[in-house]
Amino acid sequence: MNFDTFVLAAATASLDDEPAAREHADAIEFRMDLAADPLPQLHEYDGELPVIATNRAEWEGGEASEAGRLDALAEAAQLSSVEAIDVELQTLETPEGVALAENARAADVSIIASVHDFDRTPSSADLRKLLRRATDHGDIGKLAVTAQKPRDVLDLLGATQTLSATGSTVATMAMGEAGRHSRAVAPLYGSRIGYAPVDPADATAPGQYDLATLRRLVGELGSDARSTV
Ligand SMILES: O=C1C[C@@](O)(C(=O)O)C[C@@H](O)[C@@H]1O
What residues form the catalytic site here (predicted)? Predict the structure, then answer.
């Protein structure tokens, strides 16, 4: 998967959502850690949208325990429908994470190196450092933080703009109510992935818009490749 232009991912625990996501999404983010029978679902998948496979660790806000977590992601990366895998930066800084990324890349699968902070927004300097570390390990570096106040969103957008202006490929979003609007505007500052559930009841993070709404907002603001075609 290439992140030269903005990718809107429909985040879901069920690949049965794919037909409903097709109209608005560019990809499906399959949250293996939230899914029942994730590998059988992936093997049976015959949808049109490419899949980003995520198997989020418990220690990074997901539900996957460590046993078999990376093996499942490695198996997912061998499937032709899977075009990217999402791996926590902390994992990518271990030998197991390095091996997983190497094998995935050999199968032409992109690496999203991700960092989450479910409590707060780090300082501007730390946001930039985290994004740089993530882009060192991934084809795209992703940073999802929690905004408690408007200033937090400005800091995140500033880091996004700084990194993307120097040629780094990044994706950023501020979680929580105060950060919600960041999901619509971050693409204007260079963020290349947005996440949204098909149905708002199935949100995979605090403050997400539903898919149709995020597609419309990003399109209306003009940072969406789809709005120019
Ligand atoms: O890392 C992310 C970003 C996210 O947490 C969000 O805030 O939209 C949603 C997750 O499903 C995805 O893996």
Answer: 116, 142
